[in-house]
Write a structure and sequence with these properties.
The chain is of the alpha/beta class. It has eight helices and 24 strands.
């Protein structure tokens, strides 16, 4: 399979209050992932099970093609006093559903997690992935029925229900070629601005299909990798140049206008954007391959560009598009945010929705991993474990949910679980529990409004619990 990227380069989104310790939503969702608990397994009427394939002893994927793909039922809240649990594990479970009931008395376990609904933190924006050129090429390389199954896996109620989609604005390294939308030198008014075929023939049609499949509103946002060569200090789309001049000058004004032109052209094709980011990986690319397309910014330079050029350009346009920052590596937190904003994490966006067996295409040969890997020669795609790991968040934590207090009864180096609790807009509670140990960990869940759950987190597993609080 493709090599791992090591870090996810999608941007972090920002909310209202800081995360604390093991309740850090971003830390928990970023991790990739036999004793039964007290729950009984339930058969979902419409769900289809995984069709497994092994790449080595411990590397299991779920195989999908034009005629078959595993699916999930729509999320339905259990009756009051009951809960549903979804579990994925290294042992082979993939969002396996079971049911159970709360108890009023609890046999004291070694570890008890107690919800505190009066302690509320940031609102969640959502979870999603990126429609790069490479992802679009791989999706469209499948037969039409297989394409539909892949898109439904991400966006429909039968899938993990992503609600965020990130698009590169122009080329990225995950394209087949370097390009921009305004290659005529010194065209400061951008009279020759034009979308590429990668947009008009690939990404825009895929977006329309995803929008039609999703019951949840999709929030789209765009991220630029590179400015046109004539705007950059190195005179090349490829490589590590900065914008010529300084904030407020003609180059920065033209670059800000480029964002607005992009939004204009997509709007003509019935695609609107919730947000744009100021720049993909403005610092991490200093250590990346020499030909990687990028524009280098320091945090202060990015702040000044937003303040003097990009912010005013968007405010004066017809678009009500937000600006978000830090499409970069987590190593830059919290310093970057403290310089530019001083807000906190409210969502997660993964990188490419789909890659090939090599981890591309990528014209810089900067191959990475992806939740879905496509084998066009066989008209199949493989859902990797991280697809289901992300689904433990994206499917059950809708936009508008709020992280709430969750106390652990004790610190235990050999049994500490990673966990986060949220209150959904419908009033239901969601608890996600990750066990990275190679052994089972018994624990309890206490919701003072409902009762107790006696549970076990199997070795190398992730679980999502869902119940009504009223």
């Amino acid at each position: 399979m493709a090599r791992s990227a090591g870090t996810v380069s999608g941007p972090l989104l920002w909310g209202a209050k800081p995360s604390h310790g093991s309740e850090d939503l971003a830390s928990l969702v970023r991790l990739r992932g036999r004793r039964r608990s007290c729950c009984s397994r339930s058969q979902s009427r419409g769900a289809r099970p995984c069709s497994p394939k092994y790449f080595g002893r411990d590397s299991m994927v779920c195989v999908c093609n034009a005629t078959y793909c595993d699916t999930l039922d729509p999320v339905v809240l259990p009756a009051p006093g009951a809960y549903v649990k979804y579990e994925s594990s290294k042992a082979g479970k993939r969002l396996e559903r079971s049911e159970g009931s709360f108890r009023r008395g609890l046999h004291a376990p070694g570890l008890l997690l107690t919800l505190n609904a009066s302690e509320l933190y940031q609102h969640v924006k959502g979870f999603g992935g990126s429609l790069s050129d490479a992802a679009a090429l791989n999706i469209l390389g499948l037969s039409r029925p297989a394409q539909d199954r892949l898109l439904r896996s991400y966006f429909s109620e039968a899938g993990i229900e992503y609600n965020l989609v990130r698009l590169p604005m122009g080329c990225s390294d995950f394209s087949e070629r370097p390009y921009s939308y305004a290659d005529i030198p010194h065209d400061y008014e951008l009279r020759h601005f034009k979308l590429a075929e990668e947009d008009t023939r690939m990404k825009i049609p895929i977006l329309h299909r995803a929008l039609a499949m999703s019951k949840r509103p999709l929030s789209l946002y765009a991220s630029p990798w590179t400015a046109p060569a004539w705007m950059k200090s190195n005179g090349d789309i490829r490589g590590k140049g900065s914008l010529k001049g300084q904030a407020g000058d003609k180059y920065h004004r033209a670059w800000a206008s480029y964002f607005v032109k992009f939004l204009d052209e997509y709007a003509k094709r019935n695609v609107t954007f919730w947000a744009v980011t100021a720049q993909n990986e403005p610092l991490a690319t200093l250590l990346a391959p020499a030909k990687l397309p990028t524009v280098i910014f320091t945090a202060a330079q990015q702040r000044d560009f937003i303040l003097r050029n990009l912010g005013p350009a968007l405010a004066q346009s017809a678009h009500r598009t937000r600006i978000i920052i830090l499409d970069d590596q987590r190593i830059h937190l919290p310093a970057w945010a403290q310089v530019v904003l001083n807000h906190f994490v409210a969502g997660w966006t993964d990188w490419n929705l789909a890659l090939d067996l090599q981890g591309g295409p990528n014209w810089v040969r900067n191959y990475v991993d992806s939740p879905i890997i496509v084998d066009r020669s066989k008209d199949v795609f493989y859902k990797q474990p991280m697809f289901y790991h992300l689904g433990h968040f994206s499917k059950f934590i809708p936009e508008g949910s709020r992280r709430m207090g969750l106390a652990s009864s004790r610190k235990c180096p050999l049994c500490d679980l990673e966990h986060v609790a949220l209150l959904r807009p419908d009033g239901a509670a969601v608890l996600v529990v990750l066990n990275r140990f190679p052994w089972d960990v018994p624990f309890g869940i206490s919701d003072p409004a409902v009762g107790f759950i006696e549970a076990v987190a199997p070795a190398n597993s992730i679980q999502t619990y869902l119940w009504q609080r009223q």
